Amino acid sequence: MMAGRAPPLALTMGEPAGIGPEIALKTWLARDTQDLPPFVFLGDPALLAALAKRHRWRAPLAVVEDMAAGAAAFAEALPVLPLPLAVPPEHARPDARNAATVIAAIERGVALVRAGAARGLVTNPIHKAALYGASFTWPGHTEFLGHLDGLAEAPVMMLACPDLRVVPVTIHMSLRRALDTLSTAEILRQTRVVHAALIRDFGIARPYLAVAGLNPHAGEDGAMGSEEASLIRPAVAALAAEGLAVAGPLPPDTMFAAHVRTTYDAAICMYHDQALIPIKTLDFAGGTNITLGLSFIRTSPDHGTAFDIAGTGTADPSSLIAALRQAAAMAEHRAAA
User: Fold this and answer.
1) 32 pLDDT exceeds 90?
2) CATH number listed for the domain at residues 1-155+287-337
3) Burial level of 332, CB count in 10 A (0-12/13-18/19+)?
4) Which CATH number describes the domain made up of 163-282?
5) Where in the chain is the domain with CATH 3.40.718.10?
6) 280 and 104 in contact (C-beta within 8 Å)?
7) CA distance 126 to 122
8) How many beta carbons lie within 10 A of that of residue 219, not counting itself?
9) CA 56 centroid distance within chain
10) For the whole model, what pTM was predicted?
11) What is the pLDDT of residues 177-227, one digit of tens each?
């Protein structure tokens, strides 16, 4: 921990052939107009230098040895804790030879936040297929971070924008498998994690949670499906008995309307698209991915590697900016709590 001021955030490189390094540069260039918290880039400085030269961006780099030096340099240069790549990346062409460095950046970031040298971890998007040959066996970032944090159960994924927070109980699996996987126990577990995080990391003293139904019209009393009665209502009842402010199962086709969204602090959704369609419709560029249940704070842009525009200089850094702000705000709430 640095004396006299909060540590900076740690920002991982992500997939070097994607837009992560570009939006990191653009975000640093916007540091004054966007009033951003200081951050240190974990990755290859040569990659950033080549990008800045290609697009004629005036973005000096400061290669630093630790986070304290990075915080001191942030106002005048983009601080980089160096993790050299094996080979120079080609835009939109992930190379498995660089996988070890991508993984090392995540591991280094986790070590820094767990040690208190960084106050939060912000991760740029990875390309999982490029990592599978380098000892990466997890479905994605979230599960890998849970492993690094020593968790017995998987962390919880929240997507957030100013007007909505959503949590999909089942995530990266087919809809058919999601229906088979969904359980009362998992709805209970994840909702409890969300409730605790809203208090500790968002400063909401009495969170109100909305639980979505699974079927059209939330099953319409069994006429359109039985999962509400057999899986979801028992979870809602148990949570209410524990003292949580929770409502549901609510009809998914109406619970995201503007006048309904103002009545709850987070929506617990039953499957991936039920959660992500409304939030990406509301704020495609500015949404953030937040991992709940870790011992440390982790956020990420709510988009992928965007290979279709990698290297063009046109990537929008809005989601990364939002992720950095979100991590800093969560760190302040956690410190106060």
Assistant:
1) no
2) 3.40.718.10
3) middle
4) 3.40.718.10
5) 1-155+287-337, 163-282
6) no
7) 12
8) 21
9) 30
10) 0.95
11) 999 999 999 999 999 999 999 999 999 999 999 999 999 998 888 888 899
